[in-house]
Amino acid sequence: MITLSEINFRDPYILPVPEKNRYYMFGTAGATAWSGSPQGFDVYVSEDLQLWSGPLSAFTPAADFWADHHFWAPEVHRYNGKYYMFASFKADGIPRATQILVADQPEGPYVPNSAQPVTPTGWECLDGTLYVDQQNKPWMVFCREWIEVTDGEMYAVQLANDLSAAVAEPILLFRASQAPWSVGGKEGQYVTDGPFLYACANGELLMLWSSSGVKGYAMGLARSASGDITGPWTQDATPLYGEDGGHGMLFRDFQDKLLLAIHSPNINPQERPLLLEVVEVDGTLRVVAAE
Question: Which of 118, 254, 131, 107 is nearest to 199 (CA)?
Fold first, then answer.
């Protein structure tokens, strides 16, 4: 058994499965995040969020799988009785894309849900996440990368009910530079990373997403006052977390406590999963200061 401080993961995503009394954590392996040839995706398993067993292999690509590097940001959603992994992949000469994988159990094994990625062909994309709207229609929210468009973009696209493909054109939600807390790079680039959707009790729909901030990697909140995925979206002025950490997601533990999972610091190979308690107050989120 190991602790979170011993796991070199970026982009941690934790799936609670109450009937198994287990938490399943997926993420980007720090050792192959930027170089090397990843062997797939691993999962760690815990009963208490303190001690973890693993790593266990959750996805091993077949010999003919189209991507061979930059296996990034796997997140797993339970949907219609199965488990779907949204993850980003890349190959030489092929733009980065989000592909959806599927399994019958949370730990896998995961296999491609369709032959092709679900992000637009020819776009440089990453960090697809699932959102199911009030009409029970599935959507994917994803980023179009700054390396292609300079000012990183956030999109939503409606998916087929079996999550096999997009069924409409992507809708532009916002650009990274619209957030007052987002800081541009030396070449004028603004980053969009790691969207995650959260519905507030007052009907507002929030999106956690990450970019560069004053103190390094940071994570802010965008909000749709209409409660619809299509917006219009506005940006909170200050980041939810601005201390060189981000790519966050929210989940409730088995005691119903709301927790935020991020990686921090954003320095390879020092990045580690970090769990922070969060409270919802008047349509927004606040990180609870550690005692």
Answer: 131
Q: Residue 41: name the closest of 51, 52, 23, 54 by CA.
A: 54
Reported confidence tier of residue 291, pLDDT bands at 50, 70, 90: very low
Average pLDDT score over residue span 150-156 = 98
Contact (CB, 8 A) for 271 and 263 = yes
State residue 87 phi and psi, 5-degree precision.
Answer: -150, 155
Residues forming beta bridges with residue 234, ordered by sequence position: 223
Name every residue whose Cβ is closer than 8 Å to that of residue 287 and which is 6 or more positions away in sequence. 240, 241, 260, 276, 277, 278
By C-alpha distance, which of 177, 174, 192 is closest to 232?
174
* Per-residue confidence (pLDDT) for residue 290, from 0 to 100: 60
Domain ranges in the chain?
4-287
Task: Check if the beta carbon of residue 91 is closer than 8 Å to that of residue 99.
Answer: no
Count of other CB atoms within 10 angstroms of residue 161: 11
Which strands make up the sheet holding 153-158, listed edge to edge?
A: 125-132, 138-144, 153-158, 171-175
Q: CA 9, CA 25: separation in Å to the nearest integer?
A: 10
Among 137, 144, 145, smallest CA distance to 228 is for 137
The residue whose two tokens read 């909170």 is: 236
pLDDT, tens digit, 9 for 90 and up, residues 32-86: 999 888 999 999 999 999 999 999 999 999 999 999 999 999 999 999 999 999 9
- Per the CB < 8 A criterion, the answer to whether 194 and 208 are in contact is yes
Domain 4-287 has CATH 2.115.10.20: yes
The residue written with tokens 């592909």 in the block is: 99
Run of H or E residues at 146: helix 146-149
Residue pair 17/286 in contact by the 8 Å Cβ criterion: no
Backbone torsions φ then ψ of 8, nearest 5 degrees:
-90, 80
